[in-house]
Design brief:
homodimer; 60s Ribosomal Protein L30, Chain: A; Alpha/beta knot; 2 domains; 6-stranded parallel sheet; 4-stranded mixed sheet; 10 strands
């Protein structure tokens, strides 16, 4: 049985302030829920809206389709909804490449970037405090389960960069060509905001400004931050 | 002055069937409209909703904010709306790399891919007939003006691939590592559908199956088609 309070909690978790307050987030869809269960992230509650789905998840609570619609952030709820505990961030290692984001704001971009970290084996993603929250439903949907395998830390990016001994690379429109760089085996790659790039404060700390050369005439203004991240992580790992 | 019929035409152009029927498409925003004007794509009509904006565009018709809201596809119309003629496709060259899409369905992905073609100097983008239409407002918004600089052709992809003499590369999950390939100076890169990849019919025509190696353990299921395209075009051009 599901109580009114349980439903209310899930509805509240659509808002960032309640996610932060309770240290909880919501994931929808059988596949995504399974990936999180496998990853060892702690489950608080699991809701399904048919007896058939309940058979796949021993721990599930059966709710009406109306309740599911109320709790879901999707326009077409898929009938499986899990409430998970935000994992406590692990201490960030300095033994490999780290990706850092300076005020990335678009949920789809962050979701794609988390998926890229997973693909390219980047274990630590450092986000400035004003980067979009990674437990935002739109981010979670775009990560395709990769959220379970990347350690994401929100922090004061300036303070973080000031204390690290890793070499710092930042993506700038007029940086040196990434093709001409000899990249070390570990370092930090910093990517900036969609509209403004890397902020002045953060830019001042970066040791190497890099860029992706445009081919032929200069026409396109810039690359989207997620596609630029894809190309730079590929250059780092190739 | 703007007539009821002119407004009705623009409203109708929100639908693909009318865009196809009239050979017209709509672009919103001063920047995007200017890029299209510069590109030589033919303008049919231009609407603005303030006297001030009218000063920037000699050819503009002034409409009320209510009319602009009616015509716009945006939740917050930005007050500049141009109706352009779909350019007739130029014959596709075989002197450089060509990108071909097999049933890419997401407007954001197609928009990002068009922007990537512009960045990497890919002049020809061949789309299978079931690829999302490039004059869809969501695609246009995501291209950031690059639509004006890439020649996009919708065609029977199978027939196109059967008649070309260019070597054909296709992105597959289990293809050969792109890092180990010696890529020619010209060819066709085929990218597949978001959920199903390259179809069987098209796959049968491809001479080289390629893939982007995952780093470390295999965890992430796949890369988004736009980010995979970013990485592969970068590999081709670097």
């Amino acid at each position: 049985m599901v109580t009114k309070n349980q439903i209310k909690l899930v509805v509240n978790l659509k808002q960032k302030k309640y996610r932060t307050q309770h240290g909880l987030f919501v994931v929808e869809g059988e596949k995504l829920v399974n990936e999180l269960l496998d990853s060892g992230i702690q489950l608080l509650d699991l809701f399904v809206d048919t007896e058939k789905k309940a058979k796949h998840f021993q721990e599930a609570k059966l709710v009406s389709k109306a309740n599911m619609k109320q709790m879901s952030s999707l326009s077409n709820p898929n009938g499986v909804l899990g409430v998970f505990k935000v994992p406590s961030p692990k201490p960030t290692g300095e033994d490999d490449w780290v990706l850092a984001l300076d005020a990335v704001r678009d949920p789809g971009n962050l979701g794609t970037i988390i998926r890229l970290c997973d693909w390219f084996g980047i274990k630590y993603l450092i986000c400035s405090s004003d980067t979009v929250e990674c437990y935002n439903p739109k981010v979670l949907q775009a990560t395709m389960g990769s959220i379970a395998r990347v350690n994401i830390v929100y922090t004061d990016l300036e303070a973080y960069l000031k204390q690290t001994s890793l070499p710092m690379y930042g993506a700038f429109m007029d940086g040196n060509s990434i093709y001409q760089q000899k990249l070390p085996t570990k370092g930090i790659l910093v990517m900036g905001n969609e509209a403004n790039g890397i902020s002045e404060t953060i830019g001042g700390l970066i040791t190497s400004q890099i860029s992706i050369p445009q081919y032929g005439e200069t026409t396109a203004e810039s690359l989207n931050v997620a596609t630029a991240t894809a190309i730079l992580l590929n250059e780092i790992r190739r």
